[in-house]
Amino acid sequence: MSSLDQLRPGQRARIDSLDGVDALTQRLMEMGLLEGQELEVVRLAPLGEPIEIRLGDYCLSLRRREAARVRVTPLGVTGE
Amino acid sequence: MSSPAPDTPGLSATLAIPTRRLTAALLGNPNTGKTTLFNALSGLNQRVGNYPGVTVETKKGQMTCSGQVFDLIDLPGTYSLAARSPDEMVAVDVILGHQAGEPRPDVVVCLADASNLDRNLYLTVQALELGVPIVVALNMIDVAESQGIRVDAVGLARALGVPVVPIQANKRIGIDRLRETIAKTAGGPPPACGAKFPDAFDGEAAALSAALGPEVEPFLVRRLLIDAGGYTEQRLSERFGNDVHVKAKQARERLAAAGVKVPAVEMQARYGWIRSVTSGCVHRPAQRATTWTDRIDRILTHKVWGTATFVVIMFVVFESIFTAAKPIMSLIDGAKDYLIDLGHDILPPGQFTSLLLDGVVQGVGSVLVFLPQILILFGFIAVLEDCGYMARAAFLMDKLMARCGLSGKSFIPMLSSVACAVPGIMATRVIENRRDRLATILVAPLMSCSARLPVYILLIGAFLTKGFPWWVPGLTMFAMYSIGLVLAPLVALALKRTLLRGETPIFLMEMPLYKRPSLWIVLRRMYDAARAFVVRAGTIILAAMVIVWALLYYPGGTDAEGQIREMREVVKEDSAALKEKEETLAPLQKELQQLSSNAGDPTRIAELRQQVQPLSDEVEKLQKIVAGAEEKVRPVEAEWKRQSYLGRLGQAIEPAVRPLGWDWRIGVAALASFPAREVVVGTLGIIYQAGKVDPDDISSAKDLSENELTQALQSARWDGNPDRKVFTVPVALSLMVFFALCCQCASTLAVIRRETRSWFWPAFTFVYMTGLAYVGAFAVYQIGQLLM
Which of the residues A26, B88, B355, B469 has an alpha carbon 20 to 30 A from that of B40? Predict the structure, then answer.
């Protein structure tokens, strides 16, 4: 199983679970990162971080530290 | 009708049946057009409010809905009501009526972005449980439609159990209906629908509620149960004792054993319900359309093009505050100097004239001089933020700033501080995290601002130019700027590891859609920033200026001024004659010069020569007389400053500044420059008897070696040791390093006080920077002595 910080731009994935029960996990879930939700990595910032993801109707950027909390199952790469 | 008529509360209130004034609160996610809606509802009638103990600002305004006047509170934008800090608690406190001095709102308007409805409704669904009537304002329906998303507002209202009004806040569409709905809903019953939590959770919440008593709202009990270590838990335990922690912890453990995960249970319940609500009334296209934002972002966040665009934008912002503000600043400065000179000419001399002109006018002038920079920077910030670029800038710079413990949002404040720390510190408002914001505020004054420039130019021009290779002045200037650039991130890192230590702030940043910035929002932001600076910081700056004026004026001021006036009185007629002759001479000389360089009419040249010669002889003679009198004035002025309270203090602290290579006069100049660094140039001028010196003249002078102050500094000797020069290269460097690192700027301190709402942080900044400056100057002087 991989985590969100390991995905490359263009890759889609489904969220399996989120590690931890602290404020960080709470914030991630409040922003819509929930089990079963699908997402797509849009791009990385020029310095490799933060990561921009598309989540439902909007885009969110997060650092690797945050993304590492999110366990995902890769679904494939969007062809564009 | 799409544009609302201006509010006329007085008129409407008299027409309607007089009732109690009602209150409405505006709640919503960031980037949903909340400010635009607030402006549309309240018009020009608004002000910025602050609550004690929090740094976020809430705006207040008035609106009229169906003849009923409402106080409208614009709550800080947030994604959730799960508060972790006092700042995040403001919205909850206001809505529950716990904020001292605020009545409980009769209605809450929840703003939701139709193009991103599920996530926006999360906050709305939390608000449904606050026991207050809710109106949902469904904004950006046009944006949603352009993406093929259609929202059935009637169906949404039925499913949520609260009124839903579709609006386009930026085009003022739907505002009238929203007003009517607000008036109809206010004071009515609270919403009946809501997300369903598991029974086990409801049971634990009920048990906790029973233990805490009826005065703790069910909403707060749920927050206590869900937000382990959150602000509600902290506050309730202050009220009810440690027992609260224990009970909440036990309840969470029992829930975990029963298979209910906290905090996940809340998001699962709410998003689950939201999905069941929106699945019936939101129609999305099968294939997501590529938006303009996608296309623009391909360039603006691109490794090469994005970075290049960022550099260009930052350069324009920086150049504007650095260069474009200059002419207006010079104008303000010039007007101030003109007023002071004029005042001294027409008012009788004495302490009151001096207080008014050298204290108050000088002080007001030095407050107003910051306004151009503040207005320009906040204009840019408002545009960048309102159009959505600010998030991209933070996205690009985050990694770099993370290395010194900050985030991408600290970049613009830090960059702005290279022009001036005052607008830079005010710009930290874009940083939500309190510790990051404080760290940025505390290191911003280390960046080499433009007020340090006159000090550098003067000293480099006087001591590091003549007899040095051509690259020395430039290199020294570069070194002075580098000190701040290198030290600011290091100090920030040190602060984040010690005083401001804490969990790494969570970095989750929405990338909003790009949109056209609203002129109204930009102007309002500039106005608010300028007003906040003048009203809150301006008074402190003025006070500091007046105090330093008094310390330099008394006790000898009245006598010295009298003496100086007498000395000038003697040559008064000569001065007037000189001025008149000079005025006659100037055009003649000019004509002569023109004619002789163009080989003009020889008879006219001869004629002019005959006129000019005797005139210029006379002018020269008069100049000598007047200069002779000024020569006598200078020691009196110097002695007056030496005997002033500040002068005495400077002499008393000479042992402390000796290790930096300074004599007492440099010490006094450094002390007197507390209100503003550039004052040191003027004070050095007086103390070293070079007459009045304007820092601007130093900055614009091409060749400083002929400058009187330069010569005075070069020839200055230690008291009682005429063989020892005061200024050597190590002393000049030590003084420059001191001014590079110290916080001799009352405006900066006043702004820190205003932004942090505490005297501790400005005091801390002053102490740590002065300490750093002392150590730096000491090291430079001592090492310099060894090398020279």
Answer: B88
Q: What is the pLDDT of residue B9?
A: 44
B264–A contact, CB cutoff 8 A:
yes
Point out which residues pair with B136 in neighbouring strands: B110, B164
Q: Among B228, B267, B303, select the one facing A30 at the smallest CB separation.
A: B267
How far, in Å, CA of B166 to CA of B177, rounded? 9
Report whether the peptide linkage leading into residue B6 is cis, meaning its omega lies within 30 degrees of zero: no
| Residue B760 pLDDT > 70 | yes
What pLDDT, on the 0 to 100 scale, is given for residue B55?
A: 65
Structure confidence at residue A22 as a pLDDT band (50, 70, 90):
confident
To the nearest whole Å, the CA of A77 is away from the closest chain B CA by 16
Interface probe with B: pick from A25, A31, A70, most Cβ of B within 10 Å: A31
Q: Measured between beta carbons, which residues in chain B are less than 8 angstroms from residue A51?
A: none
Pairing of strands B717-718, A58-62: unpaired
With CB atoms and an 8 Å threshold, state whether B511 touches A48: no
Mean pLDDT across B585-596? 82
Q: Give the CA angle between residues A32, B258, A31 to the nearest 5°.
A: 10
B364 or B134: which carries more pLDDT confidence?
B134
Please compute Rg for chain A using Cα positions: 11
Residue with tokens 């709402």: B757
Residue B84 has pLDDT above 90, yes or no: no
CB atoms within 10 A of CB B88: 21
Tokens 């998001």 belong to B267
Q: How many CB pairs under 8 A join A and B?
A: 114
Residue B671: what pLDDT? Answer: 83
- Residue range B9-185 forms a domain whose CATH class is alpha beta
Report the gap between the CA of A10 and the closest CA in chain B (Å). Answer: 13
The answer to whether A30 contacts B149, with C-beta atoms less than 8 Å apart, is: no
Please state the rounded mean pLDDT for residues B758-763: 93
**Strands of the A51-55 sheet, one edge to the other:** A2-3, A70-77, A11-18, A38-44, A51-55, A58-62, B508-510
Mean pLDDT, residues B137-166 taken together: 92
- Domain segments of chain B: what residues? 9-185, 203-251, 555-636
Q: How confident is the model over B640-666, as a mean pLDDT?
A: 86
Nearest-neighbour CA in chain A from B674: distance (Å): 41
CB within 8 Å: A60 and B400: no
User: What is the fold of A2-77?
Assistant: SH3 type barrels. (2.30.30)
pTM: 0.78
pLDDT surpasses 70 at A34: yes
Put simply, the answer to whether B510 touches A59 (Cβ < 8 Å) is: yes
Q: Which amino acid is at B93?
A: D
Nearest one of B438, B434, B435 to B425, comparing CA atoms: B438
Once rounded to an integer, what is the mean pLDDT over residues B521-529? 85
pLDDT of residue B694: 63
**Tokens 């699945």 belong to which residue?**
B279
DSSP B429: G
DSSP track, B8-66: -HHHHHHHSPP-PPEEEEEEE-TTSSHHHHHHHHHTT-EEEEE-TT---EEEEEEEEET
Q: List, in sequence order, every residue forming a beta bridge with B24; answer none if it has no partner.
A: B72, B107
Average of per-residue pLDDT across B768-778: 94
d(CA B758, CA B113): 37
Mark residue B241 as left, alpha or beta (left: phi above 0; alpha: psi -120 to 50; beta: remaining). Answer: left
Q: For residues B424 and B327, what is the distance between their CA atoms, to the nearest angstrom?
A: 20
Q: What is the pLDDT of residue B4?
A: 44
Q: Domain ranges in chain A?
A: 2-77
Enter the ipTM. Answer: 0.94
Hey, what's the torsion of the CAs at B213, B217, B219, B225, to 10 degrees? -20
Dihedrals phi, psi of B77, to nearest 5 degrees: -65, 135
